[in-house]
Task: inverse folding
């Protein structure tokens, strides 16, 4: 079975796309069990975390079913037409993505500036708890996204500005955006390490460190999105 070399930067995305292509070509037919996670790790030469994230993405589209303790199975209904119609990138327009990036650089970044000045030890603990939830749910992008939203909401709460906090909390588009990122790009060591660095910057009251980390992640995400949209 031919497996293309995976570049380190886009591991989850590339594994995901190769799995979909294999199913489209009939390498793994409807009802068939996919190779085990360990076997897929060996086939693709990537970590188990990356394989799990890629499988979650395929499962999210209703192409495979992940049965705990049994493995992953190709569902009976996928057809070439269904698979060809899959949106491999973010289910958001360029305008929606750019609007969200502006939202983050104005509202969230202001929250961060205020939070590093006003945060209590309880706020630091809340951020750490949200981070631990993310780590615990790294193999389930939906629950991971809930913890991810909670993580970023701590910045708003720690700002001690109720208007900013309510804007962040009640902007459903922000949660949808985070969930889309995690669905499409998956959860991997890079994303978790990025949030860990944000936590340490927060503990050290380093607003610029947090914002630089967020800018890097947002820019990388947008470039991958543009690449996939071409």
Result:
């Amino acid at each position: 079975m031919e497996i293309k070399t995976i570049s380190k930067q886009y591991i989850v995305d590339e594994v995901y796309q190769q799995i979909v292509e294999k199913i489209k070509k009939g390498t793994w037919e409807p009802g068939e069990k996919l190779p085990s996670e360990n076997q897929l790790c060996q086939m693709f030469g990537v970590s188990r975390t990356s394989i799990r994230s890629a499988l979650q993405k395929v499962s999210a589209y209703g192409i495979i079913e992940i049965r705990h303790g049994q493995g992953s199975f190709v569902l009976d209904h996928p057809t070439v037409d269904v698979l060809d119609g899959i949106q491999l990138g973010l289910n958001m327009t360029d305008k929606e993505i750019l609007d969200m990036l502006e939202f983050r650089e104005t509202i969230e970044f202001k929250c961060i500036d205020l939070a590093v000045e006003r945060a209590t030890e309880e706020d630091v603990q809340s951020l750490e708890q949200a981070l631990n939830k993310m780590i615990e749910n790294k193999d389930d992008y939906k629950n991971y996204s809930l913890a991810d939203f909670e993580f970023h909401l701590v910045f708003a709460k720690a700002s001690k500005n109720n208007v900013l906090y309510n804007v962040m909390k009640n902007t459903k588009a922000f949660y949808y955006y985070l969930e889309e990122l995690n669905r499409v790009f998956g959860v991997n060591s890079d994303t978790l390490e990025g949030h860990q660095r944000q936590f340490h910057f927060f503990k050290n009251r380093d607003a610029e460190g947090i914002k630089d980390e967020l800018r890097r992640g947002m820019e990388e995400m947008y470039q991958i999105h543009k690449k996939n949209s071409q």
